[in-house]
Write a structure and sequence with these properties.
It catalyses: Thiol-dependent hydrolysis of ester, thioester, amide, peptide and isopeptide bonds formed by the C-terminal Gly of ubiquitin (a 76-residue protein attached to proteins as an intracellular targeting signal). The protein has 808 residues and is α+β, with helices and mostly antiparallel strands. Helix content is 27%, strand content 20%. Strands 17, 21, 25, 28, 29, 30, 31 and 32 form an eight-stranded mixed beta sheet that branches. Strands 2-1-3-5-6 form a five-stranded antiparallel beta sheet, with helices on one face.
């Protein structure tokens, strides 16, 4: 006890603002349930597994720890799983996670000799008792940063519901026998709550659903709310109300009043139709859900190094699927596992290792690849028998916290787009390795795209930009099963006349070869409102694109989400025929060719032409981006910065510049001159090691603020070699020196690749549903479905959202 008293100066009583890491080791995935339990430093409140607590003692001299040990209680025989009625985990009606129970014991341990004192005990010094009680009673850091359940967001109250003006037109709606007022549809019917008109819903790609009459009615009248007939019962909260201007299912607190206006007595109605959410759940649990997750396959569960699952933290499958693929790439494996030990990561980390990205990536890499946490759990039942089950997996809580820091979406518990997360990951890892770019594992994914623009004068301009993702449109007109599709649509129409729907097993989906998608990327495309410095006027240019470098790993993004009429986002239900190997050598762009003449640069003294040269954002591009939920001003900037080249180019720019310090600044008018750049500020940035031209560009973009300019440079790594004059919006030719520098900064090699991984998506939107990864390991396909890791029997190579190819 005297030894303990001698260390009281380094014992702290936790305050409410302190982050208490009592659920998990900060350098490994050891927990109180691991062998040896968890040691919580009673000074820093960091947690350490038994193999790592001595490292902390040697580094800090902190000797007193609260040792937490949890032992699993016996569990009863597996109870039958219930069919889910809610897209949720761990809540009533959701997927049953069957959490076991544990018995917890505490001790005070003094290092370096691991002297253990029981807790609670009245013999302990009061400060130690208060500190230990504070740690035990405090909410852990992990629980502060996440929700326990994965569930769909509660429907919001429509802003149009409380002020809805209903027409006094004498319309009365009967309790049955409904039919679309513009066609013969008798299912999927929606009643507009303003005028009582009954119309059919949206048409799906395969002809199911309606004929779009309800949304067309909204476009003509702007009457905002509609309720789906057949979903109205005495439980009005379950009724499916849709707001067209808000583009979402909403809650109408005055629904009873709105229904009674048209003579509808909701208390006597029976449910005959699925709500939108129920239909999505039904589709997920059936076709896509089962196919992508291989639920109907007798898969062999896998364990050992490289076969570790990731626990779903609540809508974190987008992150889990991406990280499983990343740690199957040699560059990430080398950087954060083979060439970096946990001890090295800890010794070079800041005082709090939980906030350092490189440390947490090293922790994650060792957790996934060492095999330490990939073992079959030994679960004792009531009869004392031992049963094996799937592995528990590791929870990437600390990694999620640090990678999502200051990002409003990834730090939330909402589902996210796996593509957006991958781009964010690349950006953050590149920043974390800015001081040692040769160690940056993202370089193996980086490549240079070259766009060739030719105006009617015959002269050309070349633009280059670096990217990590090759985003591909899906040309449905190149489907290889057109005859089967025509027969399917014919049969579907015939059944529709009989009031029947075609079964899921009979649905025929378009099949498009991956080669057609790649060819579409390089195909000539018209660019409207292109300002030609040769003609001194706006004109239509022809754009083609290719790659000047081929990365070690090529990521292909299939653009399955397109815009319907009325700017309504829609997911293409389509198969992509993807071969195991591809050769994109023909896509290499070689720059300026003999006989080509570059477009002249705009003369700097032609001030009188500034107004005519000012580029205006294309409303078509801005409208499509804004309909996806992006800020309208940001969409305008994206269109201008890419010279209205297209939606794809604008979206890529937008995703790469979301965190620019000047992203919210108003767009400057062409008639107002930019303030001169302070030469002192330029020289300050030059002294930091930046090129003078880059320093001037950054200061212009940041209003002369040095701090913002520095951040702008790191946020725009492509800016140093960009060939786009972003001040005027005119495409000009890059200097050969700049092009050479950009190409030299990324790897290059042959254009032959083999498929090594893919991320698939289940659901109607990238921001809902579920993500699953498939990766080739040891010569066979493996499915990573959160914590489940198994041999893939039938990998859904034709259904993925992201494809990952490795050069061979």
């Amino acid at each position: 006890m005297e030894l303990l008293r001698s260390h009281l100066a380094k014992v702290r009583i936790p305050e409410p603002t302190n982050r208490i890491h009592k659920e998990e080791c900060c350098i490994s995935f050891d927990t109180p349930r691991s062998e040896g339990g968890l040691y919580v430093d009673m000074c820093s409140f960091l947690g350490f597994g038994k193999d790592f607590v001595r490292w902390n003692f040697e580094r800090t001299g902190n000797s007193v720890y609260l040792h937490i040990q949890q032992e699993r209680k016996p569990v009863p025989e597996d109870r039958p799983l219930k069919k889910p009625t809610l897209l949720a985990i761990g809540v009533e009606g959701g997927f049953d996670n069957q959490e076991p129970e544990y018995e917890t014991t505490y001790n005070i341990v003094i290092l370096p000799d691991y002297i253990s004192l029981p807790f609670p005990s009245v013999e302990l010094p009061e400060k130690v008792r208060l500190a230990a009680d504070g740690i035990i009673l405090a909410e852990g850091a992990a629980k502060k940063e996440q929700l326990a359940a994965w569930t769909a967001e509660k429907k919001k109250v429509s802003e149009y519901a409380l002020t809805l003006q209903q027409l006094d037109n004498g319309v009365l709606v009967h309790s049955s026998g409904w039919k679309c007022s513009k066609c013969d549809k008798t299912e999927n019917l929606w009643m507009n709550l303003t005028d009582g008109t009954i119309l059919c819903g949206r048409k799906n790609w395969d002809g199911t659903g309606g004929n779009n009459h309800a949304i067309e009615h909204y476009e003509q009248t702007k009457y905002p709310l509609a309720v789906k007939l057949g979903t109205i019962t005495a439980d009005l909260e379950s009724a499916d109300v849709f707001s067209y201007p808000e583009d979402d299912s909403v809650e109408d607190p005055l629904l009873a009043q709105h229904l009674s206006h048209f003579g509808i007595d909701f208390s006597s109605l029976q449910k005959t139709e699925m709500t939108t959410a129920e239909r999505e759940l039904d589709q997920n649990v059936n076709y896509d859900w089962n196919r992508i997750q291989e639920n109907d396959k007798d898969a062999e569960l896998l364990f050992g190094p490289g076969y570790t699952g990731l626990v779903n933290l609540g809508n974190s499958c987008y992150m889990a699927s991406i990280m499983q693929v990343m740690f199957s790439a040699d560059s990430f494996v080398s950087r954060y596992y083979e060439n970096r030990s946990l001890r090295e990561a800890f010794d070079t980390s800041p005082a709090d290792p939980t906030v350092d990205l490189n440390t947490q990536l090293t922790k994650l890499g060792h957790g996934l690849l060492s095999g330490k946490y990939s073992v079959p759990p030994q679960v004792g039942n009531e009869d004392g028998k031992v049963q094996n089950d799937k592995q528990e997996g590791i929870p990437p809580r600390m990694f999620k916290t640090v990678i999502a820091a200051k990002h409003p979406e990834f730090s939330s518990m909402r589902q996210q787009d796996a593509l957006e997360f991958l781009l964010h990951l690349f950006d953050q890892v590149e920043r974390a390795n800015a001081g040692t770019p040769d160690l940056d594992p993202c370089r193996s994914f980086k490549f240079v795209i070259e766009e060739r623009l030719q105006c009617p004068s015959g002269k050309v301009a070349y633009n280059r930009r670096s990217d990590y993702i090759l985003s591909l449109n899906i040309p449905l007109h190149d489907a290889t099963n057109k005859e089967q599709l025509e027969a399917f649509h014919k049969k579907k129409a015939e059944l529709g006349l009989e009031g029947k729907e075609i079964s899921n097993d009979e649905i025929v989906r378009p099949r498009v070869p991956l080669g057609a998608c790649l060819s579409n990327f390089s195909a000539p495309e018209e660019v409207q409102d292109f300002y030609s410095t040769a003609l001194n006027a706006k004109t239509t240019a022809i754009k083609t694109a290719g790659l000047t470098t081929f990365p070690d790993y090529l990521v292909l993004h299939m653009r399955k989400f397109v815009m319907e009429a009325g700017w309504v986002p829609k997911k293409l239900d389509v198969y992509i025929d993807v071969p195991d190997t591809i050769d994109i050598t023909h896509m290499r762009s070689k720059g300026l060719q003999p006989g080509e003449e570059l477009l002249p640069e705009a003369a700097p003294n032609e001030e009188e032409n500034d107004a005519s040269m000012e580029l205006v954002a294309s409303e078509d591009i801005v409208g499509q981006l804004a309909s996806m939920g992006f800020n309208y001003l940001h969409c305008q900037k994206a269109a201008i910065k890419t010279s209205n080249a297209g939606v794809e180019e604008a979206m890529n720019w937008l995703l790469s510049h979301m965190e620019d310090p000047d992203i919210d600044d108003p767009i400057s008018s062409g008639s107002s001159k930019a303030p001169p750049v302070d030469e002192g500020s330029v020289q300050t940035l030059v002294s930091f090691g930046f090129h003078e031209d880059l320093a001037r560009k950054a200061l212009k973009a940041s209003g002369g603020n040095i701090e913002k300019a520095t951040d702008w440079i790191f946020s725009n790594p492509e800016a140093s070699s960009s060939s786009m004059d972003t001040d005027s919006g005119n495409a000009v030719a890059s200097s050969s020196a700049a092009q050479t520098d950009e190409a030299a900064a990324v790897p290059d090699g042959s254009g032959r690749y083999k498929l090594m991984g893919m991320v698939s998506h289940i659901g109607t939107s990238t921001h809902c549903g579920h993500y699953v990864a498939h990766v080739v390991k040891d010569g066979r396909w493996v499915i990573f479905n959160d914590s489940k890791v198994a041999a893939s029997v039938d990998p859904p190579k034709d259904m993925a959202y992201l494809y990952f190819f490795q050069r061979y």
